[in-house]
Amino acid sequence: MKTVFLLLAGFLLGSVPTGKIVAGRLGIDLQSTGSGNIGATNVLRSTGKLPALLTLIGDMTKGALAVLLARSFEVGIWQEGMIGIAAVLGHNFSIFLKFRGGKGVATSLGVLMVYAPLAGLATVVLWLITVLVTRTSSLGAIVSFCTLPLSMYFLDAKEKLPISFIMSIILLMRHKDNIYRLIRGTEPKVGRNT
To answer: Does the pLDDT at position 32 exceed 90?
Structure first.
């Protein structure tokens, strides 16, 4: 019963649409602007660097808090990971946005930074390097999360490996349209409005 409550709490926490709130304070309907996504990349394209940074921090915080909440109840490693994943799913399918939402990159990173810090740090570094080299945020997410199970295996605890596979699969599924655009060469670069 405790785990069920924490899963629901994690989902509710993840459902808080940080990007939409930040952009809304500036008079912008994020879901009708740019890609329509509520994540930091679309906030950057639609409003600028500071709102995007606030969105990134807010979305990461949701994931981190979900794992910290689970840990405070001493539910175990597997349950901690699943409650973190519940926050990611909450972000992706927010109850406040009629079960629409973002792609879960920042929220997933927030989960990892608490759940598996070394693997999380490796994922952040790989994401940053890929984005800086290619100027493509989605490619950074895809590359860094495709390698997450390897990072988890070599840098953290092997018993957390199933959670890393689930997180990677969720993220790749949310990026299927980006993958098609990357193959066609039409995926927008960071900073462009299209």
So the answer is: no
